[in-house]
């Protein structure tokens, strides 16, 4: 059977299907992307490398997005982040298979904007969009940041994307995210968990208060 007639697994998408695989065939529930906005690897690399360096110590919270159980996206200006509840209104709390290590999907705003290439930033499916260096070198596992009233800690779970992300932004983006030359930049993002709960607001400073032991 021709691969274009299959619904490939994530591993097959990464390793065996051609880069021009028609991603609109991928089946899932939730918002879908527009393949006309997908960028090829060469263009992605060029645009990502042209971005200014992100702050390493003090950044900004740019967007807050809750993902509802009905697969909708709700942009918030102010939100409560709880130790056991995560982002108020987000479906994480209703999906017990995901532990606290998956509590807050977080991505770097300019990376997300570049990869989206004109599509809405909410399409990424992340909760927090920040102007801060999220690379392994700057925020290894166990690092902590203060965001508004909240203290967040980097969890060990990799944020590598899924088939939904491939459909929305293309195979080139997914494969680049896992390429050894880019993997430690965390193009897709990282996961935080809440250590001290409270309120966050768009525009809040995001300050690195501790770096984990892993370089």
Automatic annotation (TrEMBL):
SUPFAM superfamilies: PK beta-barrel domain-like
Limits of the MOSC domain: 120-207
Family matches, as InterPro entries: Benzoxazolinone_Detox_Enz (IPR052353), MoCF_Sase_C (IPR005302), Pyrv_Knase-like_insert_dom_sf (IPR011037)
Pfam families to which the protein is assigned, alphabetical: MOSC
Molecular function GO labels: catalytic activity; molybdenum ion binding; pyridoxal phosphate binding
Higher taxonomy: Bacteria, Pseudomonadati, Myxococcota, Polyangia, Nannocystales
Gene3D superfamilies listed in its UniProt record: PK beta-barrel domain-like
Protein name: MOSC domain-containing protein
PANTHER family: PROTEIN YIIM (PTHR30212)
Recorded superkingdom: Bacteria
Species the sequence originates in: Plesiocystis pacifica SIR-1
